[in-house]
Amino acid sequence: MPTPTPSSLIGEPLQMPRSLWADTAINAPPLRPLESDASADVLVIGAGFTGLAAAIQLTEGGRSCIVVDAAEPGWGASGRNNGQVIAGLKQDPDVIEQRFPGDIGQRLVQFGAQAPAEVFALIKRLGIRCSASQRGWIQPAFSRTGIRAVKARHAAWSRRGVAVRLLEGAELATQLGTTRYQVGWLDPRGGSVQPLSYVRGLAWAAQYLGVRLYVGTHVQALLSRSGLWQAQTTGGTVRARQVIVATGAYAEHLVPGLRTSFVPVRTAQIATRPLPDTMRQAILPHGQVASDARQLLTSFRLSPDGRLVMGGSGATAGLDHSGIVPYLMRAGQDLFGELGPLQWEYQWSGYFAVTTDHLPHVHEPQRNLHIAVGCNGRGIAVSTALGGQLARRALGAAVEDLAVPVSGITGIPFHRFRGLGVQIATHYKRLQDRLG
Q1: How many CB atoms lie within 10 A of CB 118?
Q2: Mind listing the pLDDT tens digit for each residue in 267-312?
Q3: Which of 29, 86, 72, 13 is nearest to 350 (CA)?
Q4: Residue 377 DSSP one-character state
Q5: Using CA atoms, how far apart are residues 179 and 317, in angstroms rounded to an integer?
Q6: Is 9:209 a contact under the CB 8 Å cutoff?
Q7: Which residues contact 205 (CB under 8 A, 6 or more apart)?
Q8: Quick one: which of 420, 324, 260 has its CA closest to 82?
Q9: Structural domains of the chain sorted by starting position, each given as residue range(s) with its CATH number in brackets
Q10: How is residue 28 annotated by DSSP?
Q11: Burial per residue of 61-83, b for 16 or more beta-carbon CB atoms within 10 angstroms, e otherwise
């Protein structure tokens, strides 16, 4: 009999938290824990966007693949986010190309630019029922700093041939359903999904293609012996020639230094009861989604069943989101309260990984060990695209051919004080937002 699965991962219970997405998602495929030793060409640890996208591409490339997850597909950030599919990385393209001159920077910019297209193409090809919509993403601003950033991003992507639009005044207010912002830009590459349905759809597709997917299977140790990787789990040992670690912000101590190379930051989501038709028709009436340009951004969208869903991060690196939820409720009231009462029904939260340079990182600390981390709040598109990058590498692509540079794992100094650091950074960013 397998050893019982641990009841928590980094302090969080392993059952799926209640959320709007959990209550409305498609069913997950029937899955069981690993109960004996197993082997495959590639072992993937983590059944989120990155891990499942990688497993699908690997299987289609002729590799046998096992995916294990300590909980279930989408239990982490993949199933808890706002559901926005956004083009680009957290850093602006000019910044990326300045840091990585030449072809490397251009490929990294293009990687982020094309990431939403990969998501929507995958959904269409695999027939995933996740309320996918590619009607654009709006980034509005009201502060002087935010307006400058919005105009600069609009100009940067326009120079790169994207059909972006600058929105101002009455046009912006009509597009958003609020007069709170002054300037914004519309990126047609963006859109939305029901994120838990998307990740469960990937799990269904992976299983159909022959991926062996095990839930409730916690990897306790990862060792390399005689050219093979051995993962000791709660249900048996998995042997594989290559390993992909796709645990995102929920990394433990399987890979030395990985957990301290980023900061896990808690982001919360809140959702109203279904809105009256008059409010649905006023808020984002053309089906776009939005995330504003504040230092501590606020995301908002309508759910497939007509609820306002708002998201944002706050002054905590721990499990408690009680300080974030009131901030989001106030933001919702500030933006849309004049349209009618907002009756909040759901609140939930989870971790996402923030790297010091706000860029995704790909690591290969040992031969045939592939890791990706650090979507920095752009999780759906970037995570999916990272899965494709890791799969390409495991299928034999050269490091030089990857869009994301392979780097060493670098620990963050004083990582043990990350909770205090997040609090200080949050208060500072909120001060910046107030001062403009």
Answers
A1: 18
A2: 899 999 999 999 999 999 999 999 999 756 799 999 999 999 999 9
A3: 13
A4: T
A5: 33
A6: no
A7: 56, 126, 128
A8: 324
A9: 8-80+196-262+358-416 (3.50.50.60)
A10: P
A11: eebebbbbbbbbbbbbbbbbbbb
Q: Say how far apart CA 397 and CA 292 lie, in whole Å.
A: 37
Cα–Cα distance for residue pair 131/49, rounded to 1 Å: 16
- This prediction has a pTM of 0.93
The answer to whether 410 and 283 are in contact (CB under 8 A) is no
**pLDDT greater than 90 at residue 32:** yes
Q: How far apart are CA 142 and CA 167, in angstroms?
A: 12
- CA distances, 286 to each of 135, 177, 282, 290, 335 (Å): 7, 10, 9, 12, 17
Tokens encoding 187: 């990126």
pLDDT digits (tens, 9 = 90+) for 94-133: 999 999 999 999 999 999 999 999 999 999 999 999 999 9
Q: Are 388 and 54 in contact (CB under 8 A)?
A: yes
